[in-house]
Specification:
Helix content: 10-25%
Largest sheet: 13 strands, mixed
Radius of gyration: 18 Å
Shape: globular
Number of domains: 1
Length: about 190
């Protein structure tokens, strides 16, 4: 009986997270480093994008994917902003994280809603985990419209990326919503 009680107390404390360093190989030969934290129990992935200063207008983000609700939040710390979108690709494969490198890239156009969301609205739409992640930031809803997927072999595909594309950088000249509420997004 004591073993059962002890096990019941310890199991919730055990971590089912995997952390991986991941490198995205860009078509111009540059690399983007990031850390991936996958919580198997929570069915979430946190992506911390490293230095992207080699690209004009690129903004490193911290991205929180909640596969229970089907939403992802892209946090831009410098602009104090979260962008809330439907997850545009299937749940990630742990094998991709473990291999530690990818050259796949998805390109999106992001269309922002003009009004920011309240934190209670974020909670209603995307759940409590993403609401907590974005709580101290202005949050905008953003629709991701797929453009194309590239592999460094030069092939373009009409289908969305079949594996998890990890690198997420927001390219924008103006803080959203800009003049037309649109921006270019690369997810790789």
């Amino acid at each position: 009986m004591r073993l059962f009680v002890l096990t019941a107390l310890l199991v919730p404390c055990l971590s089912f997270q995997e952390t991986h360093h991941f490198v995205h190989l860009m078509e111009d030969g540059k690399t983007i480093h990031q850390d991936i934290i996958h919580d198997k129990n929570e069915n979430t992935v946190l992506v911390i994008v490293g230095d992207v200063s080699m690209y004009k207008h690129a903004i490193p983000t911290i991205n929180y994917h909640d596969y229970n609700t089907g939403y992802v939040a892209f946090k831009d710390i410098k602009r104090e902003m979260c962008s809330l979108s439907r997850v545009p690709f299937p749940k990630p494969s742990l094998e991709l994280f473990r291999q530690g490198v990818s050259n796949e890239t998805m390109r999106f156009t992001g269309q922002y809603d003009s009004a920011p969301l309240t934190n209670s609205k974020v909670r209603e739409i995307a759940g409590s985990k993403i609401a907590e992640f974005c709580k101290d930031y202005v949050t905008f809803s953003r629709t991701l419209i797929p453009n194309q997927m590239d592999k460094r072999s030069g092939e373009n595909a009409d289908e969305p990326c079949s594996s998890f594309c990890v690198w997420c950088v927001i390219h924008s000249d103006l803080p959203p919503p800009n003049r037309n509420g649109m921006e270019s997004i690369t997810i790789g």
